[in-house]
Amino acid sequence: MKLIVAIIRPDRLNEVLEALYLAEVRGLTASRVLGHGGETERVETYRGTTVKMDLQEKVRLEIGVSEPFVEVTIKAILGSARTGDVGDGKVFVLDVEQVYRIRTGEKNEAAVTPAVAAN
Ligand SMILES: Nc1ncnc2c1ncn2[C@@H]1O[C@H](COP(=O)(O)OP(=O)(O)OP(=O)(O)O)[C@@H](O)[C@H]1O
Ligand SMILES: [Mg+2]
Q1: In what order do the strands lie in the sheet with 56-65?
Q2: Phi, psi at residue 104, to the nearest 5°?
Q3: Where are the domains of the chain?
């Protein structure tokens, strides 16, 4: 199992959610975050030149998936979040040790398998 963490542009969120839905990826968490993507601006001040690190509004998606869903999830995000301009974001893929579905007590793969019609 993996936890896919994607930092995306807020204005791409709807497209990304739609792509994930079409890829049959179910279950995710989204948060509004502030991020810095390496772009720095040099600002002249009376003491000389300083570097300004602006924080941009981004959306952080966290998606726990079983192995068969790892590649389709990454592809769905890459295909839908991209504009081609700097700042499109990042996808991190983390190993997950254990997952539990609280309602049923199911563990690991069973706990991240889409529970179609069960909800
Ligand atoms: N190394 C990183 N660690 C954690 N978060 C990051 C990292 N790089 C980027 N981010 C997050 O992703 C957001 C978008 O980053 P950004 O798209 O600028 O990445 P990039 O690698 O600099 O790509 P680009 O060349 O398109 O600018 C940042 O605002 C930040 O929230
Ligand atoms: Mg950047």
Answers
A1: 29-35, 56-65, 2-8, 90-95
A2: -105, -15
A3: 2-112
Beta strands in the chain (DSSP E): 2-8, 29-35, 41-45, 48-52, 56-65, 90-95
78 touches 30 (CB < 8 A): no
User: What percentage of the chain carries pLDDT values higher than 70?
Assistant: 95
For ligand 2, the distance from its centroid to the CA atom of residue 55, given in whole angstroms, is: 11
Q: Would you place residue 118 in the very low, low, confident or very high pLDDT band (cuts 50, 70, 90)? A: very low
User: What is the per-residue pLDDT for 90?
Assistant: 98
Q: Which letter does DSSP use for residue 73 in this model?
A: H
Question: Tokens in use for 77?
Answer: 């995000």
Assign a CATH topology to domain 2-112.
Alpha-Beta Plaits (3.30.70)
A 10 A CB-CB count for 16 gives 24
Q: Is 64 in the pocket of ligand 1 (CB under 6 A)?
A: no
Q: What is the tens place of the pLDDT at every residue in 29-61?
A: 999 999 999 887 777 777 787 778 899 999 999
37 Cβ inside 6 Å of ligand 1: yes
